[in-house]
Design a protein that fits this description.
Length: about 725
């Protein structure tokens, strides 16, 4: 339909060869508010029509050049002529012309001779009714389109006669073609998904007997085998005896909406990577669990599971691998806890468990129906066992271990936040105890956590207050029993707590970033000490300073080392820096260039705690290292654990093939020393020889041994005379 603005004056095209008639019609129509265009020649009607696009046409049946019926058909065949009202002018009694006019598609006719006073009204009436009809058609089309878009079909049931009406859209929703038969109440029920059929039938029956409005949401199986979710809402009419006589309603295909809702639900309550519930859903579980625990007088266990050194996997093997590991961990946790009821219990009652991803590599497990610590411990042990099994990711084997902290409701706390916090504190304690174990929360741990905070504040002042000092642990060349080097480790003379080892505050200093200040202080102190030894020229050995990876992040290391060398004026060959494997994660090549710069200054580099991280051969080759240090965890069990022994052998072989020097640390017994020596590791350090010593003790030890050295060299040729040096710091 043509769009007509407000105050629009409709245009009438009058096609008649009779000039007189045209004038009369024009006057009459203009008086009625129309605009009028005229055509006298039949051959020009079509072109004038398409040029002027009139709102109504009055067409004479007999015109020179074209007959009116044919013209009418031709206009109808054009796109805009489809709906335009065409009024034919026929002879008074010419029934045949009237019939032909309708057959040609005319809207109406007027007869000649014309009743001029009436013609204006007549045309006005035809024009208006045509517009109304068009509007109706248009709104019907809009409605059909809207129903289609909304996947909405309507239906009616005459419950007395059994006559049903189901709109075309209902057929489309049910996947039915016109030839598939008619939809009825039974056809509808038959299509309902088998799992829901019974409930829907019962629901509908109840509605027909008792309700005036009802709404049912269910799944159907369409004729073409698809599962759709539909919603039908209906109104029921009843007679005076309350018997349902008629029902009408609509059916809507809400499958897409349901899918979107499900997606939103998943996003809101589940972790997208692992598919596990997130914190929000976990809160819900906890509320239910509390109700259950109160009812049954049982406890709830909260297990905080954190993967050890997971960051290293992400950093060295990439996030894609990290994600795969997390997914595997999640599915092991999820599958694992479902079995606990059988495995963790000897007695009959079940432990019900839920697992959620808390953040990054942290998961929380909720255990319901826990009677005592032992129940929770058994589950924790199983989780630990199952997570420690190797993961095969893209063909390579990865080992991940968990540290688990456990808190119990209601003994440790009554709300989830507290319980998670306490389980987290316990988990940290598990980490401190060497990772890969589980620990229960206790109040004393809480104090430890608070202590950490206090300690952090105090460390900030420790440097200024001169509370830090350096201890020196000799590194022994075992075949000659001579001191071949010294490792400097930092100590803190704490005003209240006494002397603190590096292990008790360096991790905290690393977390807070204070370590860079500590390292700078140690480096300057050691350089000054080296200078003093050089000046006295009584003994010269290489001194190692531990450098935290944090210094590389700050990118100040090269400059700090340069300053330390300059201000102390030492010969750089007496200085060695020890870095840990984590440092070698070098995303933009900064670390390798910094290490090269340091090497260029003449300083040597050692890789500490080797074997505990994820160093690959590629890494080792890339960096300008001189020494590998075998971590004390391998040395500790070298005599009892074949794995430790073979890893140690492999590290020694690796170092040799890369032409790197090797040092074993943490040597505590003669047997360890001998086995390491047998495997080819000549340089060793550890309490067997000497713990880290204060400067005074070190000098005493050296003096003592140099006399012993001169005593013994005559008969044994060994610096330390083959004896362990037992001097306590
Ligand atoms: P590390 O570099 O592997 O140092 C060896 C640690 O093992 C030292 O602990 C040392 O006291 C201890 N140790 C030595 N011999 C034995 C032994 O026979 N048995 C056992 N079980 N342990 C032994 P410490 O001094 O508490 O240092 C711990 C870690 O803290 C060091 O491990 C090092 O990574 C770090 N560290 C120490 N001083 C500094 C420092 O000035 N700066 C930085 N960034 N880190 C430091
Ligand atoms: Mg070290
Ligand atoms: Mg070490």
């Amino acid at each position: 339909m043509k769009f007509s603005p407000m105050n629009y004056t409709p245009l009438v095209l009058v096609a008649d060869d009779d000039h007189f008639i045209r004038v009369l019609v024009k006057d009459a129509l203009e008086a009625e508010g129309f605009r009028v265009a005229e055509v006298a020649d039949g051959r020009e009607v079509l072109s004038t029509f398409s040029r002027m696009n009139p709102d109504i046409i009055i067409l004479d049946v007999v015109m020179p050049g074209r007959d009116g019926f044919r013209l009418c058909r031709e206009i109808r065949a054009t796109e805009s002529g489809h709906t335009v009202p065409i009024v034919m002018m026929t002879g008074l009694d010419d029934i045949d012309a009237v019939r032909k006019s309708y057959a040609a598609g005319a809207t109406d006719f007027i007869t000649k001779p014309l009743n001029i006073p009436l013609i204006g009204y007549r045309i006005q009436y035809i024009y208006r009714s045509n517009r109304t009809l068009e509007k109706l058609k248009q709104s019907e089309t809009r409605l059909v389109d809207a129903l289609k878009i909304a996947n909405l079909g309507s239906w009616e049931m005459d419950l007395d006669s059994g006559n049903d009406y189901w709109s075309q859209e209902v057929y489309t929703i049910f996947g039915m073609e016109p030839g598939d038969g008619v939809i009825s109440h039974d056809v509808f029920l038959n299509a309902v998904h088998p799992e829901e059929k019974e409930a829907v039938a019962a629901r509908m029956e109840k509605a027909f007997f008792e309700e005036n409005d009802f709404s049912i949401e269910c799944r159907i199986l369409t004729k073409n085998g698809r599962t759709r979710t539909i919603l039908t809402k209906a109104r029921i009419n009843r007679d005076e005896k309350h018997k349902a006589t008629w029902a009408a309603g609509f059916i809507q295909d809400i499958t897409e909406r349901k899918e979107v809702e499900e997606k939103i639900r998943l996003l809101a309550y589940y972790d997208t990577l692992t598919g596990l519930p997130n914190r929000i859903l976990f809160h819900d579980y906890f509320s239910h669990a509390v109700a259950f625990a109160t009812r049954t007088k049982t406890q709830i266990g909260i297990l905080f599971v954190d993967l050890d050194r997971f960051k290293l996997i992400n950093d060295t093997l990439g996030h894609a691998v990290g994600d795969k590991v997390l997914k595997d961990v999640a599915s092991r946790l999820d599958a694992g806890i479902r079995k606990y009821d059988y495995i963790a219990r000897e007695r009959v009652t079940d432990i019900d468990a839920e697992v959620a991803r808390f953040a990054g590599d942290e998961f929380i497990v909720l255990l319901k129906n826990v009677r005592d610590h032992f129940d929770a411990a058994k589950v924790a042990q199983r989780i630990q066992d199952s997570l420690t099994m190797p993961y095969i990711i893209d063909g390579s084997e990865i080992i991940v271990t968990p540290s688990i902290g456990i808190s119990l409701y209601p003994v440790d706390g009554e709300n989830l936040e507290d319980l998670i916090k306490f389980a987290d504190i316990a988990m940290y304690h598990a980490k401190e105890l060497g990772r890969n174990n589980f620990q229960f929360y206790s109040r004393s741990l809480d104090t430890t956590a608070k202590d950490h905070l206090i300690l952090e504040g105090q460390l900030r002042n420790a440097i200024k207050r001169n509370e830090l000092f350096v201890c020196y642990q000799p590194i022994i060349h075992v075949p000659s029993f001579e001191i071949t080097g010294i490792e400097a480790v930092v100590r803190w003379r704490h005003p209240e707590r006494g002397i603190l080892s590096a292990a008790s505050f360096v991790p905290m200093a690393e977390e807070t970033g204070l370590i860079t200040e500590v390292d700078e202080w140690v480096l300057f102190t050691v350089c000054k000490q080296i200078k003093e030894w050089q000046d006295r020229s009584d003994h010269s050995w290489m001194v190692t300073v531990n450098i935290s990876g944090r210094n590389f992040k700050k990118r100040t290391l090269v400059e700090t080392v340069g300053r330390a060398l300059q201000s102390s004026e030492i010969d750089p060959r007496w200085l060695k820096l020890e870095i840990t494997e984590g440092v070698l994660i070098d995303k933009d090549g900064y670390v390798v260039s910094a290490l090269n710069n340091i090497k260029d200054m003449g300083i040597r580099l050692a890789l500490d705690d080797f074997g505990t991280g994820y160093s690959s051969l590629g890494y080792l080759r890339k960096f300008p290292l001189d020494i590998l240090k075998i971590d004390k965890c391998f040395v500790k069990d070298i005599l009892i654990d074949p794995d430790c022994a073979s890893i140690t052998t492999a590290i020694i072989a690796l170092a040799k093939s890369l032409k790197l020097d090797i040092i074993a640390e943490g040597v505590e017994t003669k047997e360890q020393m001998e086995l390491l020596l047998e495997k080819g590791c000549e340089k060793q350090q550890g309490n067997y020889f000497s713990p880290p010593l204060s400067l005074t003790d070190l000098e005493v030890l050296v003096r003592h041994n140099s006399t012993r050295l001169s005593d013994r060299t005559a008969d044994t040729g060994h610096g330390f005379g083959g004896q362990p040096v037992l001097v306590s710091s």
